[in-house]
Structure of Branched-chain amino acid ABC transporter permease:
Amino acid sequence: MRYQRMLVPALALVFVMVPAISARAQGEAVPRGPTFGARALQALIDGVQFGVIIAITSVGLSLIFGTIHLINFAHGEFVTIGATFAFFLNVSAAGPGWHLIPAALAAVVFGALLGGAVDRGIWRPLRARGTGLINMFIVTIGLSLVLRHVVLVLYGTRPASYAQYDIQSTIGLGPAGITPRDLTVTLLAVLVLLGIAALLQKTRIGTAVRAVSANRDLAEASGIDVQRVVLFVWMLAGGLAALGGVFFGLVEIVTWDMGFKLLLLMFAGVILGGLGSAYGAMVGSLVVGIVAQMSTLWFPVDLQYAWALLVLILVLLVRPQGILGRAERVG
């Protein structure tokens, strides 16, 4: 009996070792996994893609805080609504069955209109009544719960994908790779961010937005229509959130709570870059995305968001105002 117990592991070892020895004897290369350098490059590519998607969604969140100092906890639901609205137009049996590109454009328009409607219907009356920021923040939490469960009722809990650009072969980038879909999403996201920067720097409405963010009272005294600027910011934030939701649903999957899951990283990008700074939100979100993906080289995937938040804490310990934020005196 003792010899039989020893024989079983010995035979298993033989069955494992013989193919490898035979391959070496015949000059065949034994298959190996990707090197650490290849995995690091792939994680960097994935991190840039993830970061620019977070940046698109977080820019509007930062602009809202810069103009009216409101922390919009419902911003993640705008992301979900954009993704699910495009899904309805593209995939749902009750929808028109549009191609994803016009469905995405319609979702951006719907998100912008929703942002404007929320400002005109909720936030402007509350501002007119002099409602405090803490009370308005509580309202954003309630609005988030309402919108999330409306999406849950209309969309359901089953994850789904868009009809187009689902399964694609990768394009080789040295030892790493990226699908044409992911490459297109990344390039489009970068172009959108560059367009936002040009809008803020080169247009009259962009100048007005920066003026209101810098000093609301002085901007109003200078003849700027602050309410119009705030309405524009809400519509811009809603449209960008919807676009980011479509991009995120395209590279990942569409779910009823996808925006809520992304909300913490949006806040991390905004705070890391500097509260109220659109450019800071872009830089901070890119850092968060890269750190989240690069951390998977050493740690489990389930902890990738935690390491991004740890970097946020470390940066704020050194630079409390964020990467591009302005230091202010308290008191």
Q: What stands out?
A: The chain has a mean pLDDT of 83. Residues 36-68 form the longest helix (33 residues).
